[in-house]
Amino acid sequence: MPLLTRRLLVIGADAAGMSAASQARRRRPAAELEIVAFDRGNFSSYSACGIPYFVGGVVDDLASLVVRTPEEFREKHSIQVHLGHEVVEIDLDRGAVLVQHRESGGQRWEGFDELMVGTGAVPVRPPLPGADAQGIFGVQTLDDGVAVRAYVAEHRPGRAVIVGSGYVGLEMAEAFCALGLETHLVDGAAQPLQRLDPDMGALVADALREFGTILHLGQEVAGFEAGPDGRVAGVVTGEETIAAEVVVLGLGVRPNSALAEAAGVRIGPSGAIAVDQRMRTSRAGVWAAGDCAEKRHRISGRPVAVALGTHANKEGRVAGINLGGGYATFPGVIGTAVTKVGALEVARTGLGDAEAEAAGFVTDAAIAESTTRAGYYPGAAKITTKLVVERGTGRVLGGQIVGEEGAAKRIDAVALAVWNAMTVEELLGVDLGYAPPYSPVWDPVLAAARKAVDRLA
Amino acid sequence: MPLLTRRLLVIGADAAGMSAASQARRRRPAAELEIVAFDRGNFSSYSACGIPYFVGGVVDDLASLVVRTPEEFREKHSIQVHLGHEVVEIDLDRGAVLVQHRESGGQRWEGFDELMVGTGAVPVRPPLPGADAQGIFGVQTLDDGVAVRAYVAEHRPGRAVIVGSGYVGLEMAEAFCALGLETHLVDGAAQPLQRLDPDMGALVADALREFGTILHLGQEVAGFEAGPDGRVAGVVTGEETIAAEVVVLGLGVRPNSALAEAAGVRIGPSGAIAVDQRMRTSRAGVWAAGDCAEKRHRISGRPVAVALGTHANKEGRVAGINLGGGYATFPGVIGTAVTKVGALEVARTGLGDAEAEAAGFVTDAAIAESTTRAGYYPGAAKITTKLVVERGTGRVLGGQIVGEEGAAKRIDAVALAVWNAMTVEELLGVDLGYAPPYSPVWDPVLAAARKAVDRLA
Question: What is the predicted ipTM?
Answer without folding.
Answer: 0.95
